[in-house]
Write a structure and sequence with these properties.
Number of strands: 9
Radius of gyration: 19 Å
Helix content: 10-25%
Strand content: 25-35%
Structural class: alpha+beta
Order of helices and strands: HEEEEEEHEHEE
Strand order of the largest sheet: 6-3-2-1-9
CATH architecture: Sandwich
CATH topology: Immunoglobulin-like
Number of helices: 3
Number of domains: 1
Largest sheet: 5 strands, antiparallel
């Protein structure tokens, strides 16, 4: 009877893990943001928090994203990627989710925002980009949005009913940055 020693499998396990890691890295560029109330403009004292994680595909033709949030004081009704540097309110580039019954009417095909919290995922392509034209990003200019993301001048945020009255910017926000490039300085 032939026995395989566990140590004999170790190099295969390492090689397999390396191949998976290389394949994952080859599929695109990972971007992310940590969303909290203190990052809003003006700052909001909210117990809520969230995360935005996405992958820009190698061809630059789509961004697959996941937005997660919980603990919000108000009912979430829309979330976006905005074009703006830290501590500046910028225009909307892309809708991440929206609930029309609460005033969050995004373009056709916009996923619903989970209430009271949860996770929503989707795909951003050129048709998803709505601007902001006033900041020289025209509708469908996905490459311009990707350039802005790489420059560290975009943020994700979640708007809720708690923040819509006196605080129009939203309840939680986070500057988007690359996994290895800390443009946002979330400190």
């Amino acid at each position: 009877m032939m026995r395989t020693r566990p140590s004999a499998l170790w190099p295969l396990t390492i090689a397999g893990a390396t191949l998976l890691t290389v394949a994952g890295a080859a599929s695109g560029e990972v971007i992310q943001a940590r969303l909290i109330g203190y990052e809003e403009t003006p700052a909001v004292s909210s117990p809520g928090s969230g995360s935005f994680t996405a992958r820009i595909d190698r061809s630059g033709t789509q961004i697959e994203y996941t937005l997660q949030y919980d603990g919000l004081q108000g009912r979430p009704f829309m979330a976006h990627i905005h074009f703006g540097q830290r501590r500046v309110a910028g225009g909307i580039s892309v809708w991440l989710c929206g609930n029309p019954e609460d005033g969050g009417t995004g373009p056709m095909g916009t996923p619903r925002c989970p209430v009271p919290g949860g996770t929503v995922s989707g795909v951003i392509n050129a048709a998803s980009v709505i601007g902001p034209a006033g900041q020289l990003i025209a509708p469908t200019e996905l490459s311009e949005l990707i350039d802005a993301i790489r420059a560290g001048v975009t943020y994700a945020n979640v708007h809720t009913t708690a923040a819509s009255g006196g605080v129009p910017g939203g309840e939680i926000r986070g500057q988007i940055r690359g996994r290895d490039n800390d443009h946002g300085h979330d400190h």
